[in-house]
Design brief:
The protein is built from eleven helices and 15 strands. By secondary structure, it is an alpha/beta fold. The longest helix has 19 residues.
Length: 331
Amino acid sequence: MKAMVMTGFGTPEVFELREIPKPQIRPGYVIIRVRASSVNPIDYKIRSGLLKNLAPENGVLGFDVSGIIDAVGDGVTKFKEGDEVFGCSGAITGNPGALAEYQLVDERLLALKPNSLTLEECAALPLVSITAWDALIRGAKINQADKVLVHGGAGGVGHLGVQLAKAFGADVYSTVSSDIKSELVRNYGATPINYNSASIAEYVNEHTKGEGFDVIFDTVGGNVLNDSFEASKLEGRVTSVNTRIKCDLTILHQKALSLHVVFMIIPILYDQHEGKNRHGEVLKEIANKVDSGFISPLIHEQIFSFNEVSEAHTLLEEGRAIGKVILRGFD
């Protein structure tokens, strides 16, 4: 079968079209005829060598997948041949990615796609929606009484976080850097806060009467984690997807804050039964929220083919994408 394979680590040009063996079915797994994938930051971090220890052995990336089930293994109970599914199947050690004609995927990681989206559109959702769910629903346990601040609400994970928090009845705010992004998060139901024109103290005073936010979802990382501590109320809940920094936790202690860190590939990386089942169940909930009109993926206007994966990586890595970058599968 055809696949886009990394020939090494480095620039986006390391991808090469190759013929590799089609995967063989195994118990508990399905083979998907891949229709689409997308690019996530973890894809280019592996490709660049920053996370080379996570690289799949055959060099095929692509965490998100959507497609049609081509074959089912013994013991598979959730799906049948011909089902249209989506999921975050992993593109890490022991789990070849989606940038190929076919992919072998653990059935626990999949769900039937939303009826209201195409297979290409579905590929925008799995990794970012599971991440947002783990942060806000599983981690912070948001409720209707919460004021929720999402840092980076116009981004891939952030725009799902805004919509999820809104769907669960929270009062949602989002930091942004431009008028265009302000309009985006406003359309998703959040009150935009331009951090270039308002200090933390100013927007905390304006929107929480100086008390701070109940829940803060940091989708950015770096110094934004410190900003999250500062903007949180006493005994507030902070969730983050990027805490690979040295950080002074004094304010965390002074405010008695809770910090929940999300690294959503752990169930795939460590083959956790309950975690994999949870991913599939979360995607079922996401599909229901999509079909009910609560969630809509933001997709970059240009759709790339698998053959154009280098260009897609460059676009995302340079920060020029507005929404999720979709990769269309081989014809």
